[in-house]
Task: inverse folding
């Protein structure tokens, strides 16, 4: 009886060992297929997340660049035409300023060996449809950190140097369509790129029309329509900037953006992004517009 029990145990052990030797080929193939399916789903989710993250990052970068460009351009335009207020303009008067003493604005100072001068009527603002030249009075004043007076104002490149004798601060913004950059120069310095990935840069000028008494209007004009004698009457400048990103994205057919075209027909200004080539192909494009009022408010060359 006992021997029969041992034989039964041995047979069961052999059967159990045989059943645990491995899996069949079909089971293996099913396992691999399931594993590959899981990997494919995970990779799809990862790529979708990567695309969304890249698009958001690209949008943030474009907006930051646009904010910087508008800040630099706006800083110079808001100073355009500004003059120096001389608090001691009467020869021989005491350096102690009293409220009753006369003061005066100085357009330019007669300094021996001085550099470029500043004439408000002609040096405040000039430009074209794709470039802009801004000027204002450069003057020196007493500073705590130096025994000699220094100029605290700078152009778009942070110049000129303290040793410069220029009487006019000058910022010249130009668009280089070949390199896709917005460049800035001035006061004799070579123009340098201050913004990349620029698809378009256009400027319009706001001129006050007083031809009809009691019905003053503001005209948006191209540079050619301003006229050589009316630059001093320009009250504000509209700047339009189109920037594109670095991240390639999948654009649905017909994806477009509204560019800087100054045509009243918005449909003509829509640009199909799916047709762009080169570095702009499959890139996000965003247009930014801003209007900057000049400090002179259009009075330089007329009243002042």
Result:
């Amino acid at each position: 009886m006992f021997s029969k029990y041992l034989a039964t145990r041995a047979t069961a052990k052999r059967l159990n060992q045989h059943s645990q030797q491995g899996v069949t080929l079909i089971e293996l193939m099913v396992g691999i297929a399931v594993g590959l399916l899981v990997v494919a789903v995970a990779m799809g989710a990862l790529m979708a997340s990567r695309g969304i993250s890249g698009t958001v990052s690209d949008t943030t970068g474009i907006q930051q660049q646009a904010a910087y460009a508008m800040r630099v351009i706006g800083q110079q335009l808001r100073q355009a035409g500004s003059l120096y207020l001389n608090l001691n303009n009467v020869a021989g008067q005491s350096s102690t300023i009293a409220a009753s003493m006369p003061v005066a604005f100085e357009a330019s100072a007669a300094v021996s060996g001085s550099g470029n001068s500043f004439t408000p009527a002609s040096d405040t603002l000039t430009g074209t449809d794709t470039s802009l030249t801004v000027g204002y009075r450069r003057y020196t004043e007493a500073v705590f950190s130096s025994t000699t007076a220094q100029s605290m104002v700078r152009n778009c490149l942070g110049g000129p140097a303290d040793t410069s004798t220029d009487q006019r601060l000058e910022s010249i913004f130009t668009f280089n369509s070949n390199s896709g950059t917005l460049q800035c120069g001035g006061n004799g310095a070579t123009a340098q790129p201050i913004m990349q990935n620029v698809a378009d840069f256009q400027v319009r000028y706001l001129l006050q029309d007083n031809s009809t008494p009691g019905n003053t209007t503001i005209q948006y004009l191209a540079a050619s329509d301003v006229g050589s004698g009316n630059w001093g009457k320009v009250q504000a400048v509209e700047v339009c900037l189109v920037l594109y990103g670095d991240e390639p994205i999948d654009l649905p057919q017909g994806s477009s953006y509204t560019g800087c075209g100054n045509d009243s027909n918005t449909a003509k200004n829509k640009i199909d992004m799916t047709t762009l080539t080169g570095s702009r192909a499959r890139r996000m494009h965003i247009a930014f517009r801003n209007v900057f009022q000049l400090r002179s408010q259009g009075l330089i060359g007329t009243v002042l």
Q: What stands out?
A: The first helix runs from residue 2 to 19. Helices lie at 2-19, 25-79, 120-123, 223-226. Residues 82 and 136 are 5 Å apart (CA to CA).
